Structures are given as C-alpha cells and as structure tokens.
Amino acid sequence: MDNGTGSLLETYLFETGTLLEQLDELLITAEQNGDFTEDNVNEIFRSMHTIKGSSAMLEFNSLMEIAHHIEDLFFYIRDNGMDTLTSDQKSELFNLMFSSVDKLREEVGKVESSEPLDTNIDGFIQDINNFLNKISNKDSSEAAGDDTEAPAAADGAAPTPQQIDAPYALQIFFDEGCGMENLRAFMLVTALQEIGKPFNFYPDDVETNSDSSEYIIENGFFLGFQTEEDAESAVAHVSTVGNVRSYEILDLTAAQKEEESSQPQSEPVQSPQPEAVSQPAPKKAPAPEKDKKPATQSSGSHGSAKQSLISVNLSKLDSLMAIVGEIVITESMVTSSPELQNLKLDSFLKSARQLRKLTDDLQDISMSLRMVSVASVFQKMNRIVRDMSKTLKRDTKLTIIGENTEVDKTIVDNIGDPIMHIVRNAMDHGIEETQEERIAAGKNPQGEIVLSAEHTGSEVIISIKDDGRGVNPDAVLAKAASQGLLTKPEEEYSQKEILALLLAPGFSTNTEVTEYSGRGVGMDVVKKNVESVGGVISISSELGKGSCFTLKIPLTLAIVDGMEISVGGSIFTIPIANIRQSFKAKESDVVLDAAGNEMIRCMDDYYPIIRLRDLYAMEEGCTTIDDGILMWVETSDKSYCLFVDELIGEQQIVVKPLPSYLNNFNIQNSGISGCTILGDGNISLILDVNNVYSASQNMFF
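and the corresponding structure tokens:
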C-alpha cells in the first residue's frame, strides 16, 4: 500500500470510527428519551451519507450497502416524521439501529485488521428493507421499485442549460489519473450540501454510474447555481478539496445569447438545436489552464486558513515524546557535568535555568498533545449497560461524571477493557435481579452505576460504583478457602484483605457460565491490565449498599517525577506518587511481628519494613536503622516502609523499558519496572512499589 492510499485509509478509519461512536451516544440518548428528535434524524442521515460515500470511494461494498439502506430508511423518516411510527415500531427502530451500528463497526474492524469484508449481507439488508416497508405500508414489489435509480442521461450527451437548469455553472476538472472521478464528484456534492446553497449538478448519476467518470474526465463535472454569488461561495470550498486540478465559473446566459446571435449567420435556415447551446462550454473547458490555476491557488490559500484542527498519527507523537525525553536527559547531563562543579559560572547558570524552563515548556506541550479525554471510553459503557439491562431484565442507568478528564492516549487505550469488565461485573453480580428485591431493601427500583473520573495531582482516579447488593465478605472468604487461596487463618483477615481476594488469580464466585461471566476470566485480569499502565486498583463494599472499584492511573508513562535514593553504591528511583513520607528512626522504634518480621509505627498504625539491601542481596549499604532513612510508600492496598541509605533528591525521569531478554529472568516481579538515565550518565533502576512488596513476601516465605 502506497503512502497516499495508506493515509486515505487511516483518515477513513478515524472518521468512520468517530461517526460510529457519535451514533452510539446519539442512540443511547434518544432511546432514553423514547424518541428521535428532528436533529437526531438529520444527524443519522448525514452520518450514513458520509459513511456511504467514503466507503464507496474505497470500494468497501458491505459498508456502503448497509449505510445506503439506512440512509434510505432515514430519508423516509425525515420526510414523514417520527410521529407516523407507533411505539412498537420506534422500539424496533432502536434495536435495528443498534444492530446496524454493531455490524458497521464489525466491518470497520475487518478493514482495520486487513480481513476480507462480509460478502453475504443480504439478510441484514432485508431486515432494514422489511422495516422500511412496514412503516411505509409498501409491499415487496413496491420496495423493489424504490431501490432502482433514476435513468441516467445518455452516455456522452453534452450538458445543456436545460440539463444544468441554472444561469451559472462551476466546471471542475480533477487531477489526471486520480481515478474514481464519479465518486470524487459525489463526495464534492455531499460536502457542498452542508453549505445550504441550492444547486444541481451534471452528470446527475455520479453516485451510481461509474461510466460517468469518462464523461467527467473529458468534459468536467458541472455544478449549477442560480446566482453568481452562490457559485463564488462554492469556489471557496472546491478550492480546498484534494485532487481538484482546475475550475471555472461559466455564465450560461451570456454563452446562450452569444450562440443565438451567431447562429442565424452560420445556419439561417435551420432551427437551433438544444445540443448546440452548451456543447462549446465543455469542449472549451480544458483549454484555459492559465486562467484557472491562479484562481485555485488564491482560493485555496483562503480556504486553508480556516482549518484549525489536524489529525496526527500516534507513532509520530511517540517519536516526538522520545526526542523530548532525550532532550531532558541531555539537558540534565550538561547542567550536572562534574567538570562544572565548584566553578562560578553565573552566565552559564542563567542560561541553564532558561534552558530548563524551555525544556519544561516543550515537555508540557508534547505531553498535552497525547492527552485525550476518557469520554471515548466512558461513553462506550452506556451501550454495555443498555444491552445487559435488556438481556438480564434489570432496569439500570449509567451516570457519568468527569468524562472530560484527560489522560495519555496510550493509557486510555489500555483502560477500556478493565472498565468494561468492572461495569459488566457490576451489572451481573452487583445490581439486584428484580425490582421487588430492590424495593424491599428500600432502594429505587431502577439500579444505578456511577462512572466517574477526576484529577489528583499526577494521577487520575476512576471509580465504578453501583448501588447493588454489595459483597458478602463471609461468602468470599469461604470461597477463597475452598479454592486454596488463603495464606493465613480466616479469622486474621480484615475487611480490606477479604475484598482484595476478589482480585486473586482464578477467584470467581459465579457457579454458572453466562454470556458475561463464569468463564474463569476473573478480576485478576483487570488488576494485571491496570498495573501494566502503572495503575493500581482497590475495592470497597458494604453489604446491601453496593460496591466501588477505584482505579488510580498515572497521567502519562513517559516522563514522571521521581525520588532518587541510594543503597550502597547503587541508585534507585521511586515515583513520587507512591511516596507518603520520609523519616529517620531509631533501632529501638522497630518491633517484630509474630513471624519475626520488622515493623514500625506510623500515624498510629504499624507497617512492615523492607530492606532493599537484603531484598537484592547487596554487599554494600547501611545495616542499622539509625544510619539510614525510612520511606513510607503506598500502592493499591499495600503500604510499607523501605529502608535505604539516603535520599539524593527529586528529579524528572524519562522512563526507559528494560531490554526484552531480561523478561526471561522474571525481573519485573522482583520489583524493577524500568530504568532511567541520570544527569551524570549513570543508569538508575526504577522501582515498582507494588512488586517490591510482593517480592519481599516471596523472600520471607
């Protein structure tokens, strides 16, 4: 695939995907309101018209056919209004539209993965046609007649004023060899319809007749307008369209008068023929190239000034972020060079501060380019709740809060599945099965799931809360015991620890395999996916009141604030977001638990102490509490104190992944998530606070 076609395909996938997401949101809102508004109908019609045209241009026939028939359906609804439909027909229309969007999305997915499109969509098309017949009271024979196109003009017939039916025409020629001229003309017509100016066009069968491409190549494509001002307004748009070689506004009334005045002299006996009136216009069109090109350039520059948004490939943003990261590292290496220590270089220090400011600004801008709102993920949950409500017969609504909260694009792409799994879990396990059960518990008959997001410093907190039956801790503990997941006596488990068992691998309370659960894919998969993007997940629940799953997600994975620490001659980095407090302690402050493990008291509670020197079997480093420093760190449901030699200082770090071959040594489970390059050129290992604790437990047991 060449770059041009690849770029066109990327644009198609992006625009079509966006339209389908918007349709999903529109359908959900309209179904909640119980009806389509006039604006809804027009938007669906325009969306399907766009999908049809762009799919036809790329020869994705299944997508084009489905969109074409839905467009016909809403063309009828637009002309006759929703009032002509009964309540049952409206309900059927909603179901038909949801299934149509699903089918379109399925076909787009095949395009994206380079799979062959479905060639057998007759049954699906028949469902759309049957519904159209039902609401229009037509039989099958009449329906067949509706699909036939208007007869095309005779091949090769030159346009006449009667065919254009306008005093002014805009004659357009596309680039030589661009291909599919008829569909390019059709897309141009579709775009101009948004302007709202009345016009007609010739050939008038460009949408359905591929043979019209030959006529357009030879004579051009004609747009007819009633006033010269309307033609000029169309020029502003035509000039910005790709593959347009040249264009010219033709005054057909002047051409007709000139033809009529010259005809008696050349042929005084014969009556004027209609074909002769407009024949000169198309034939003369290709000649005046010099006159047309300046108009294209001037109009094009005017049109491009209006453009304020562009779409950028994510790989380019990844490359930009990598370069910015290298700049941050290089700037740190320059300003921290040992050769500059103890030198009074006021001018250099001033320039270095300015460089740091510019580097920070560049970093902020490059990171902001990757930030997208979580709305795209949140809105998809509307469909999940809607479908499950109907399947499980549980009346439930979804409330969304903070959908405009922004997170790194990579993280947004990775949290969609975990959130979907939790929402499904809330519907399947949380919300009560019957309204009677909810009423008996003193609740609203309609269940509610609240999906919210908010910024807190360097991370985003996403919560999925339901007002269902909640989690029975006794049942969870008994199930975990039967599955052999307990590591200590049942009576020693706290409420928080019992709920954490829901995230254990293989744990499931479902006894039946349903469409949504019971297949052994438990919450441990959700936990793993969240932790893969540097996030943590926690659970809270109250029996009979509901449950809440909380996800703490970093804003970005590329550049984070970290604290450098040392143990012996080694330097480690801990993300600032995981650090609660650093403090000095005495050996006498340390107590031992029943198993002989060290603990220390912080904020009226006791936390275990993990010595990095012992964990990684290092030969150097402090051995007594008095000589080092304790760092109180926290992640998810784990909180403990790290014993290190000293704190070096806070620094922005560029996260570098570990070489892939190190995965063979299971190094990530040892508590090391990556590395970063320090200002002096040395490498610092980045600690994963969650896995450090897990590694220490494996060491103890």
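(Above: one complete record from the training split.) The chain is about 45% helix and 20% strand.
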